[in-house]
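hiii so um. not sure if this is the right channel but i have a protein structure encoded as tokens and i wanna go backwards to a sequence. like what aa goes where. can anyone help
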């Protein structure tokens, strides 16, 4: 899969993976807060996409 567009985060390719990091204005999320981001992609993937949040 190739990511064609992404918003509200930074994107960097690392080998077979994409590394998604917050932009400056949403790097800190207060208690009860939330952040939304999204992406558009093309191509095929296996049965699932894994997103890890640290």
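sure thing!! here u go:
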């Amino acid at each position: 899969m190739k990511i064609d567009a992404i918003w509200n985060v930074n994107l960097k390719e690392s080998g077979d993976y994409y590394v998604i990091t917050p932009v400056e204005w949403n790097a800190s999320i207060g208690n009860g807060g939330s952040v939304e981001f999204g992406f558009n992609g093309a191509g095929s993937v296996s049965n699932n996409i894994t997103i890890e949040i640290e």
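oh and The CA atoms of residues 30 and 36 lie 14 Å apart.
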